[in-house]
Amino acid sequence: MATLLTTPLFSSLPLLTQPKNRPKLQCNSKHGKSSFDSNGIKKLNLSKFRKLDVQRSKFLQMGSQERSFERNLSVQAMDSTGTGNPSTISRNVFAVMHLLVSLGIIVATDVFLKQAFLSASIKFPSALFGMFCIFSVLMIFDSFVPVAATSLMNFFEPAFLFIQRWLPLFYVPSLVVLPLSVRDIPAASGVKICYIVAGGWLASLCVAGYTAIAVRKLVKTEMTEAEPMAKPSPFSTLELWSWSGIFFVSFIGALLYPNSLGTSARTCLPFLLSSTVLGYIVGSGLPSSIKKIFHPIICCALSAVLAALAFGYASGSGLDPVLGNYLTKVASDPGAGDILMGFLGSVILSFAFSMFKQRKLVKRHAAEIFTSVIVSTVFSLYSTALVGRLVGLEPSLTVSILPRCITVALALSIVSLFEGTNSSLTAAVVVVTGLIGANFVQVVLDKLRLRDPIARGIATASSAHGLGTAALSAKEPEALPFCAIAYALTGIFGSLLCSVPAVRQSLLAVVG
């Protein structure tokens, strides 16, 4: 009806054409001008009628908009009561089920590969093998059935975003139990390790950055836009209060009933895990100026240590037993840290999806990326071994910190290939290296005049892995794709390199 009313009232009236040289008569009146042709046919001036018609159309449109606005208000009011749109609840339930199924498949795949490699006595990292398999399947599907590759990516995207959202948590356990890990290390050796970590980070940053610049000048490849990467959602107030409730209830329950879940590690697991998560949520919400100094992962580790200290004081057991319950390294009696570190294999598997997402970028800038990563990784491993020997660091400790620039998940797999290493020290050194990079990478890159986003991204990820990547990409999104690629490739190439017996023997020879 509105459409009919808003149609111009006189648009369908035919106007007779006038022959040439036919006299016209005009008369003026208060209603406007009228004209007559020689046949006496009156021609109306429709301008005023059209103005009235436009006003009528606007009035009708305003009425339609008001009715639409009222309908929107009623729908929103029904949604707010929870009874107006039941499909919202079903979508939320489906999203949760989608996340659980996709994440469950990744975790189950990691567990299966670990058991298979352990049964076959294969020392190669099982998660790395799985990552190659997933990436190969995606590439094959993309070549022959692109729709299948896209469907797989969409199916596993919730799991990938979940891992990306909570990624720093998986690094925390090694920092939490650091007091137990370094207790037997002499103070002089600790100073040497700090020197190697800080100086090694700067050296690796320079090598990777300047190598990328040199190769880029040779190949002269133009920059292209990277594939957009989905970002995980921020933490909500509901999550904060939910984890706070879990912490207080489980903390009091563990004090009143110390063995309610069978063992002390299981009894302490809920409040230690919730305190770790709470620290990360709070740390992530801090202002950027504070996070430069007080990184969320430090807040996360500090929160867990304070919770352990409070429980040790209240129960009279002391700090050390509670930290021992945090990371037991016993599959039959896991602690909160064991649960978190159990996702490290899934983190490696998820690299396949990020690599596939940026496959075009990898292909276009393959020369800069692969050359820089290979040179930087080789330099990092052998320079650490050499400097450790020069400063007189114990061989077992030197070997433990060899993969200092490689992400925790793969660094632990690398040191497992050697004998007599301290895996807790390895994880702690890797995290500290990342924290140094996260706090100082932008300033140092500016001082070194490395302004190319490719060089900045590769240098950051090759020297400070995930934590440095997160810090740089937050302010320089154009460097994120190169950070992500170098982050994964550095760990992959380092693992492949150390899985060769001849390379391991050469590293041990340098260490002495």
From TrEMBL:
Q: What is its main location?
A: membrane
Q: Which residues cross the membrane?
A: 93-113, 125-149, 161-181, 193-213, 240-257, 293-315, 335-356, 368-391, 397-418, 425-445, 479-498
Specify the superkingdom: Eukaryota
Which keywords annotate this record? Answer: Membrane, Transmembrane, Transmembrane helix
Look up keyword Phosphoprotein and say if it applies.
Answer: no
Range of residues in the leader sequence: none
Please tell me whether the keyword Transmembrane helix is annotated for this protein.
yes
User: Which GO biological process categories is it annotated with?
Assistant: cellular response to water deprivation; chloroplast organization; lateral root development; photorespiration; response to abscisic acid; stomatal movement
Q: How does it sit in the membrane?
A: Multi-pass membrane protein
Q: Which Pfam families match?
A: LrgB
GO molecular-function term, one example from the UniProt record: glycerate transmembrane transporter activity
**Compartments (UniProt record):** Membrane
InterPro entries recorded: CidB/LrgB
Annotated Gene Ontology cellular component terms: chloroplast inner membrane
Q: What is this protein called?
A: Plastidal glycolate/glycerate translocator 1, chloroplastic
What is the species listed in this Swiss-Prot or TrEMBL entry?
A: Arabis alpina
